[in-house]
Amino acid sequence: MHLLENIKEAFRSISSNLLRTVLTALIVSIGIMSLVGILTAIDAIKASLNSTFASLGANSFEIEAKGYNNGGRRGGVQAKTYPAITYLQARQYKEQLGDEAKVGISAFVAGATEVKANGEKTNPNMQVVAGDENYLLIQSYNLKAGRGFSPTELDNGSNVVIVGSEIKDKLFPKQSPINQYVYMLGRRFQVVGELEKSGSSMGGGGADRLMLVPLETGNQLPRQRALTYDIKTATTDASQLNYLTGEATGIMRAVRQDQLGQPDSFEVERSDSLAGKLDALSGNLRIGGFLVGFITLLGASIALMNIMMVSVTERTREIGVRKAMGATALLIRQQFLIEAIVICVLGGSLGILLGVGIGNAVSLLVGSGGFIIPWLWMSVGLIICITVGLASGYYPASKAAALDPIESLRFE
């Protein structure tokens, strides 16, 4: 009963000093807002990136001939170089794996290519890549306009092309490139699709300088050397990645005719290490965000303690009256502790709501989608509010409990 009475008394005290309470609660809410906001933003960005990786990014692996791309050298020692993966082997692997995962086959046809159309020409730094029906999906490239390659175009090796945004801006600045014709590598191609702008990737232009043609068409284009085929296998189910890796290894050994007991003539490189790096990075960001929020809350707790000290001084006579009426030191201490906790919880609740909103807004501004409700950080924020209230209110409450009732009644 005494505890309930103290809670009511805390609210009466808060309502009688509303402006001071609001300002104090705002100090606490800013601290909680910074803590919850930073952690929410980190979680929202991470969730968006994980979704991007899982949509056929991180849950994937590439297969390439062992020692082929690195020149057969390891640690300065010449290693055995195996033959490159042929187009027939890549197709056999894709057919045998079936529908268990998405398999994309692509080949780099030419770099430093000049593309012409409408009397205009691009810089000689465009890249020509041949790809199958899964190439755009696995590379996470999105179409801005037009369509992908039809089965007939893929099978017959038609002269059709999907162009990047930089090529469109140079050759067709005021019109759509769809169904227009461009010239490159001695052939005329019909544009059937336009890629969304992706921005520069390590100076290579990413998808913006890409000319994507069907895989069969790439095999027919003039080139200085045989094409090197890139096989990428991806799944949306991360739990199946280990199983798929093992199955893919078995299929590729059969396709490459690797003898029993002999090492693989190819390498399987998994991309899920990106998710591990992301987890490590987000963990470091969380530590940094927690430190920033902790410093802000430290300032808020000092301000709250100062306010509570002022409150104790102002209510010295009230404390004397309560003690004269039989209130014990414990009840007086509870009164001021509960008041400090109530102020912190009110301010913290506002801070949690603002933090969740601001955190999701920040993640949206940097390009991440989706709204998350961080129940963990909300619970942590509430616990911190109560802890700050106890820490900030204990000394003022103890000071109030130790006041002499006779001296308190004389206080003016």
From TrEMBL:
All copies of domain MacB-like periplasmic core, residue ranges: 21-229
CC per GO annotation: plasma membrane
Pfam families, per the entry: FtsX, MacB_PCD
Primary localisation category: membrane
UniProt-annotated location(s): Cell membrane
Transmembrane segments: 21-42, 287-307, 340-366, 372-395
Keywords, ordered alphabetically: Cell membrane, Membrane, Transmembrane, Transmembrane helix
Membrane topology: Multi-pass membrane protein
Family annotation (InterPro entries): ABC3_permease_C, MacB_PCD, Macrolide_Exporter_MacB
ABC3 transporter permease C-terminal domain location: 291-404
GO molecular-function term, one example from the UniProt record: transmembrane transporter activity
Family: Belongs to the ABC-4 integral membrane protein family.
Protein name: Putative ABC transport system permease protein
Biological source species: Hymenobacter actinosclerus
